[in-house]
Amino acid sequence: MTHLRYGGDYNPEQWPEEVWAEDVELMRRAGVNTVTVGVFSWARIEPRPGERDFGWLDRVLDLLHAGGIDVFLATPTASPPPWLGHRFPETLPVDFDGHRLSYGSRNQFCPSSPVYREHALSLVTDLAERYGGHPALKLWHVGNELGQVCHCDVTAEHFRRWLRDRHGSLDALNDAWSTAFWSQRYGEWAEVIPPRRAPYLINPAQRLDFARFCSDALLECFVAERDVLRRVTPDVPATTNFMGLQQPMDYWELARHEDVVSHDWYPDPADPTSHVMSALSFDLMRSLKRGPWLLMEQAASAVNWRRRNPPKPAGQLRAQSVQAVARGADAVCFFQWRASRGGAEKYHSGMVPHAGTDSRVFREVVALGADLRALAPVAGAPVPASVAVVLDWESWWAAQLDAHPSGDFDLVTRLRDFYEPLFDLGVTVDFAHPSGDLSGYRLVVAPNLYLVRDAEPLVSYAAGGGTVVMGFFSGVVDEHDRVHLGGYPAPFRELLGLRVEEMVPLGPDEVLTCASASLGEFTADFWYDDLRAEGAEVVATVVGSGADGVPVVLRNRYGAGTAWYVGTRPSPDFMRRLMDRVVAEAGAGPASRPPRGVEVVRRGDVLFVVNHGTSEVRVDVPGDHVDLLTGASVTGSVALGEFGVAALAPALPSGG
Amino acid sequence: MTHLRYGGDYNPEQWPEEVWAEDVELMRRAGVNTVTVGVFSWARIEPRPGERDFGWLDRVLDLLHAGGIDVFLATPTASPPPWLGHRFPETLPVDFDGHRLSYGSRNQFCPSSPVYREHALSLVTDLAERYGGHPALKLWHVGNELGQVCHCDVTAEHFRRWLRDRHGSLDALNDAWSTAFWSQRYGEWAEVIPPRRAPYLINPAQRLDFARFCSDALLECFVAERDVLRRVTPDVPATTNFMGLQQPMDYWELARHEDVVSHDWYPDPADPTSHVMSALSFDLMRSLKRGPWLLMEQAASAVNWRRRNPPKPAGQLRAQSVQAVARGADAVCFFQWRASRGGAEKYHSGMVPHAGTDSRVFREVVALGADLRALAPVAGAPVPASVAVVLDWESWWAAQLDAHPSGDFDLVTRLRDFYEPLFDLGVTVDFAHPSGDLSGYRLVVAPNLYLVRDAEPLVSYAAGGGTVVMGFFSGVVDEHDRVHLGGYPAPFRELLGLRVEEMVPLGPDEVLTCASASLGEFTADFWYDDLRAEGAEVVATVVGSGADGVPVVLRNRYGAGTAWYVGTRPSPDFMRRLMDRVVAEAGAGPASRPPRGVEVVRRGDVLFVVNHGTSEVRVDVPGDHVDLLTGASVTGSVALGEFGVAALAPALPSGG
Amino acid sequence: MTHLRYGGDYNPEQWPEEVWAEDVELMRRAGVNTVTVGVFSWARIEPRPGERDFGWLDRVLDLLHAGGIDVFLATPTASPPPWLGHRFPETLPVDFDGHRLSYGSRNQFCPSSPVYREHALSLVTDLAERYGGHPALKLWHVGNELGQVCHCDVTAEHFRRWLRDRHGSLDALNDAWSTAFWSQRYGEWAEVIPPRRAPYLINPAQRLDFARFCSDALLECFVAERDVLRRVTPDVPATTNFMGLQQPMDYWELARHEDVVSHDWYPDPADPTSHVMSALSFDLMRSLKRGPWLLMEQAASAVNWRRRNPPKPAGQLRAQSVQAVARGADAVCFFQWRASRGGAEKYHSGMVPHAGTDSRVFREVVALGADLRALAPVAGAPVPASVAVVLDWESWWAAQLDAHPSGDFDLVTRLRDFYEPLFDLGVTVDFAHPSGDLSGYRLVVAPNLYLVRDAEPLVSYAAGGGTVVMGFFSGVVDEHDRVHLGGYPAPFRELLGLRVEEMVPLGPDEVLTCASASLGEFTADFWYDDLRAEGAEVVATVVGSGADGVPVVLRNRYGAGTAWYVGTRPSPDFMRRLMDRVVAEAGAGPASRPPRGVEVVRRGDVLFVVNHGTSEVRVDVPGDHVDLLTGASVTGSVALGEFGVAALAPALPSGG
């Protein structure tokens, strides 16, 4: 990469053809160099089964290419046309309650449907063959925001095939699903079905395997398309756009099968702390394939799908876009180029808003184009991190099944509990799969690892000198959601030097007072483990209440390394103190400790500073820099106003 | 009309025949002169398909007539008998989720069902032929509270026929529905269906057309019955009872097809401000056909369908009934004469309560009969108004579709925001359709006109010297829910002298501080428009916060008239100050400015004063009057206790 | 009974056979003498239709017997295997909305299904024949927590047969169901169906009869199994486990058909007042067959099905178990012996927890075994009570139908309103059916008797010298949910000496101030009756507000007895004062008036004192006692710490 891509979803089929030329002219004015075409074009390309209408798309691609605009071409398979659902109702998805969903929206397909897949692949083949050689084509954009789930009988048959592959025999499935409980033993394969609405709690291992299956079924859909595309255009990479922390698909697995990671991200303008979860999602995207990624969709201003959808305040779009680049994005793109006049998403803002080009939004879009040109030097550059946060989709699926100690347990919240203090300290993190290679990190944080197939990688990592921090409700079950017996968290008990007898969820108004000799007093809520140290040093305990003296933060030397356990949910303030110490002890710093609301992150040799707040701040940046965005020299510190940003490259040594 | 009708729904089939004679005697004692018979009698009249049992109804009508009681005879088509649903399940409605609803309640029919319609019309024909000449018959009461919606396949076929009529071609429908978005293009008519449960947002133009269709389908049901009745009894008028501000049916359209407007209204006794919405609903009813209307149903005391159903406090029934007469009612009727012993509405109060005639409720019913006799002079008289509030059902349907800037936007609340200050000022208003004749009004208030087919009537009205007040989220879309581009509200931008770039919904706890040089400081919430004046005078702006300086109230001279824009939701106190000024400038007064909670409204030459509060008040009424209710002379002012009322006719000039 | 049974559900099929021997050893260590086997074993015993696999169960029962452990053997019919739902989908239940529920959970059967019943009875027959003579077998445990409801067409046919039996003719049904309202008259039997999702309110009499039918259908299932068991093993008693205050089944009726009452009870450890409802449920269980009952299930610590599931604090299990024995339990059992490793209830604690035997929970389980051995002297002893609280399932069903004066009316809350002050006073109560024999009681409390078939028993009871206390919303309807006319509560007006004209539900924030000359001032909320005394003495009235002077507590001499009426919901403090006086006047004491949170109850000649609070208390216990649990002498008073208990037997007179 020698530059950053800038652009957005371009849906010319929504507009009269005479608008297209104006579009290209405005794109050039804004510095747009890439657009995604065709995401929702199935019905336009194939208005009736088997027909093909490519003429309009030929003209669009030629026009873009003539204007110097590259194209990410979508396979339009996420949104089948009405005729598919009408003629083949079996392609429509069935929900948990047994309702077959209708067309009239989007995404209405059963991922297991051979009829859907056949129609989709036929179209993808023709699309690839027609445009594989088009000079504007730079990337295949497969489908859109995969996440469909179906409970129909076709899915059931597919699920059974998948289960046979996974478990081998029905006896193994009965064992894995603990069907001896509640008289659920299956006597023949035909009896096995997806989870469906039932009188009471559903078998959790069945639900867990169904979550795995759903992810795999979508992966099959993706791979089937990718294989067609690879066959026809072996040199054109393929992606499918992710959506941050979404449960339905295991993004680690999906990322393995795509060529580049792309990401759709929509922070809420009404949330003044949204930049924290943005950073988290960007770090995750960068980690999935350990490299640059594409911000495939963001909004120029408001979205349309929240209860309240305010526009972005002036300047926020720039701050958010630079934040993405700072954390590894090589593209900054939008849904969508031109705000729709009609349809379900017309109040989703566009780069060209309803108000037209004489508008704050369009002026910011033009300015952002110039900023991104100035940031070209970071394209392709890595973002260094010495801390990894562990995230595992199957553990997530299992941890949020029902009938657990707390129905309020939310993995994303738990990730944030540990991520935010690191963010506040200015420590950049990667994400890692628990079975992945952790050797490059000084510190590995596991906010939650409820399900553990194999504890060995983490245990070895610590034994070899690494530092591990682990949160509660970890190490509880195996891959079949069966409890590791003998006291929680059995697979990590030795590593952590402790034993949990019972887990204690707290009421919404319950607050614990805790104390640590080294880290001071603090409050905690939500949960605590009734545990005792078995070798670990007790760093903090509950004070008073029925839990007086129960350890809540522990530290255990293990082999050449260290393992911390946080058995409650301490206040954010304490979490910053704790992580500051952990980072320092692990040598995982430096911690830049920027002012609150300010983000500091290094990409390549450029130090990005972003003020997500509304007050002016001054941030220390030791040494001499040049701000790529302004060309100004910066020495020692930089002042940033509301949504201010700086991209500080090392100043060339001056003569003299 | 030379008198006011007084009575209620009379359901003698619920009681042994020996009770009927007592009923008539008690009606006479209470001054009841009219009852509605047969609303729920289908199964009694037609116990098995094709049978007819009219004997009991003959006796009821004869008995009533002998007692001097007039009859509104209902076509009992709102509640089909069990045999219809049992034998013809296709007549049962299907909901959005695809559930076919059961009988065992009421209203269980698909308005598009030919089987339902055929059975209904056959019964209506026989009913009309049997009783068309009965001397007690004064009015046909068609069905009951129309509002059924169905999503079944029969409805789908009907919907397609309706869409063909409306759009002509499938290309036109695809264009109108913006189906280029999300790959929704229809390739043949058979694919087009009602909105049904789908994976995500439904096409809004499809939903809007379906709302129109549902209203029209019910209208067809009404017209089909009315045509039978007109053929048989050309001189007997027909109505169907409305329910105030109900979304499913366009009451403007329905009112055009009936002979007189009738209204069911149930204020909540637990709401001390319910009289405001009562007034609003009564003004709407009066406006639908520009004349007197019938209060067809109210409750003598408690209802049964709210979460909590307290009885009316002593005196409130009288105040509410007189309020209806003051605002144009020529009838005051109840659901129902005798409270049921059994069934789903037995806790809905009756004129004769469970406790019997030795009860406060029955005594109030008797007293009300006398009051209504005293108010006979106002029967048929008009209620003058120089202000019109604009209300358009299709705009309402569109404004409350989903995926909008604010999911909390509620048209009824917006109407009240503008109606209540006028009510508080003692200014009587009419309602008007935006394409209606506005020439008789000094002031036209459009709290919201989200969907605009044709801005011309309002614009011309202002150009010709009228004053218009418009609220935010107006002028946004065309009849197909497609945005009018170029800055909101495009069709009214010239009229209003301003341009909105973005719409800003506020959070539930966000409050703006605003200031106006002429009208003082105030707070506002819910929403503001990010707008700039393009010619309009800025009357008020936001002060402080991120929106500092944004105009929120503007005033524009346009032609010979004036247009005001209110781009936020000011506090009620400011709205009173603002509307006081607007009314004064427009010459739309006089504003009587009664004490809080007191209603002052003129009908014919009688000035009604109603105290809806619990404290004694004294109200200025310049001149000499006689209170029709008491015969007392009133000079200069009148004192009213809790729920006190006065009906002040001009005193005849005394000799001397 | 010469001892108390101690044990729990034992599900060895969840564990490898090598664990079984350890189980028996641990049971013996804990003092377990009885376990329930087979509750969820259908699929294990009958893995395919018609097969039988009893070998494992033979080994389990033999092993238990060899270890000296008695067995309650379950008929595993509550949880059919997957093959039943797969091969016979008509056995799966259909919910109110029309969804056919799936297997994959438990309880998925239609109680009316002949296919289900045939398979269930065939299995029960074989089970009885195989194990009827096993020496370990002491009790049949039929099904599990009966409560299934189904709305399918097979159920509809069964419902119609039941209705024919009940009503005789369709005319009688039409009359009973008040079908004249809303045109619901049935013309033939085939039209009659269960309540199903409909456009609006469902006929309440239909819903009431359906509630009766559902209870009877489950009763049929129970009786069918019991008859098989009685035929094969006439000497082995049968029970089915109840769940306290559950609406679906009329436990009075079910208890009549079983040999002993058993009870599953799960107080929430997060609720510091849960012991009150525990006491209430225990008193109810004791009353159902007027004798000892079995605590068939409780949790050793946490459960898994609430939103938050904390463990029990140390000591609470003991206090709760002793409480059950004090109120008549002859068994203290658990769900389940060993906490599951997998499945939907793995976080439901077991007597052997996940942490194993080196755990607080297991240590408490062992200690409890010793405590129960010490309490053997009370086995079989009665619990004397001179107060009865009236509870009637069909009135409960009717009182909680919809479209009532208050949708927040909850019978269980109403029971507690009257039960808790009696509990606080240390007055032990029985429960009684309103048509039952009340002659043995000094005081009968009817917190609510909405539906009254026959007022005579209560009226006669008072006339004969008894004291009755009745709460509001009583005596309103007959057995067909038709109002008793003439002023509420018509059947009790003479008894109570008053007449209610209207019922007034209050808003959630409304509080009445009330005053009583003899009992002082108090507040009240939720409801008041607009009533006037007709002979009764007014004990308390509302003061101020719109209800000033309305009587809310009245006392009426009737025959040789007294009737009190409480027409509002007074504060708990006033309820204690009121019930203290009522108990004293009725001679229904003595009231021991223990400290708050302390329970005092006599069983046989043992006085139980239980401290449910966390503070140490001293409780007066006149006379000389020996604490069965400790052997300590107690004279005059006893001190109890957190969750402390004492079981005080009279001290044998010492020589001297």
UniProtKB/TrEMBL annotation, chains A, B, C:
The keyword Phosphoprotein does not apply. It catalyses: Hydrolysis of terminal non-reducing beta-D-galactose residues in beta-D-galactosides. It comes from Saccharothrix hoggarensis. This is Beta-galactosidase. Keywords: Glycosidase, Hydrolase. The keyword 4Fe-4S does not apply. The lineage of its organism: Bacteria, Bacillati, Actinomycetota, Actinomycetes, Pseudonocardiales. Residues 597-646 form the Beta-galactosidase C-terminal domain. One of its GO terms (molecular function) is beta-galactosidase activity.
